[in-house]
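From the shared-data thread, chain only:
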Amino acid sequence: MGKLIGCLLAASLLLFSVSTKSDNTPVGAELVPAGTPYSPGILAGDTLYVSGLQGTDPRTHALPGDFGQEARNCLENIGHVLNDAHMDYSDVVSVQIYLVDMSQFQEVNAIYKEYFKSPMPARTTVQAAKLSLGAHIEISAIARK
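Structure, as tokens:
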């Protein structure tokens, strides 16, 4: 009985240490203004979670006037977070695209294919009534090494 209790105690301590260990590393902080209440990316083990990023210029944080450039900036910003985590677009397994105007879907697809190659990540595209900062597109992703 003593050995069983000892094994259960050891297993409980192991589970506690694994579940409380924080190996989450923020990446891409320079993409957002200081004090922004989120991380552009969090690397948790071998999985990178990229926040919904907009097409802002990484230096000025301003949105371009051209939708195509805004979409490219979104994907470039995601690429920056991937690079910070020592990953690239080929490591992306899932993408979520939020569009204010679904009529821009085909334009987004054309630009998207410049960044992602076969096998393409799983993807969801939805129309959003409104995005913060007046953005027309926002993209989030999950990547895994």
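Residues 2-20 form the longest helix (19 residues).
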